[in-house]
Amino acid sequence: KNEKLLRTEGATSFPVSPSSRAERIYEICGMVARNVFLKEPSSDYAKRVQDILFMIAAHESASFTYRRQIGFSSSTTSGAWSLWQMEAGGIIKSRRDLSLNTSLRERCSAVLNYYNLPQIFLQANSDFMTLLRSFMEPEHDPCACIYARLFLLRCPGAIPSTHEEQAAYAKKYWNTELGKATSGNYLSAFLMS
Fold first, then answer.
1. Cα 10 from Cα 126, distance rounded (Å)
2. CB-based contacts of 119: which residues, under 8 Å, 6+ apart?
3. What DSSP designation does 160 have?
């Protein structure tokens, strides 16, 4: 059933000079952008979502290097997790969103099936530490990207069209005014990855 939901068409080419690691993450961001939504996106809008997901991961992980916030143990929920450096509170809200929206959960499930990942990570009653620790493993990057997309679905307004505007959006809603990053940091990470 879920395989019929999956949108694999419309993949876009890599926007900058790629490394194989960056290409892989960009492809994952595209798959998630085309398939995890509240309202089906146009191909242009899916590309914007793909780019901002990639931009956030590029910056937050220092060019796809870190899957756990430096200085935090894997035995605590504190700190940030995955290439997208998500904190526990946002992940918990995303799990709640999935439990309340069957069609959204089915679309996320189709993406996990595509990457042969377990469905348990979409269930609100699954072990939370197991989910968080999975985000430290490269094979679970698609699951982490889904959770990053779910976070962005809660942010106000549409994903902007230019990379400069996307960087400002990432600073405002992902990093917030409390974070150290600048919109320039997000843009530079995107362009250099």
1. 33
2. 109, 112, 113
3. P
User: Residues 6 or more apart from 143 whose CB is under 8 A from it?
Assistant: 112, 115, 117, 121, 131, 134, 135
DSSP code for 128: H
**Identity of the residue numbered 39:** K
Distances (CA, A) of 88 to 35, 123, 172: 23, 15, 19
Burial status of residue 71 (CB atoms within 10 A of its CB: 0-12, 13-18, 19 or more)? exposed
Q: How far apart are CA 165 and CA 123, in angstroms?
A: 34
End-to-end distance of the chain based on CA atoms, in angstroms? Answer: 36
**pTM summary value:** 0.92
Q: Is it the case that residue 11 has pLDDT exceeding 90? A: no
Q: Which residue carries 């493993």 as its tokens? A: 137
DSSP 21: H
Q: Which residues pair with 81 in a beta bridge?
A: 68, 86
User: Angle formed by the axes of helices 88-100 and 102-114, to 10°?
Assistant: 110
Kindly report, residue by residue over 29-79, the tens digit of the pLDDT.
Answer: 999 999 999 999 999 999 999 999 999 999 999 999 999 999 999 999 999
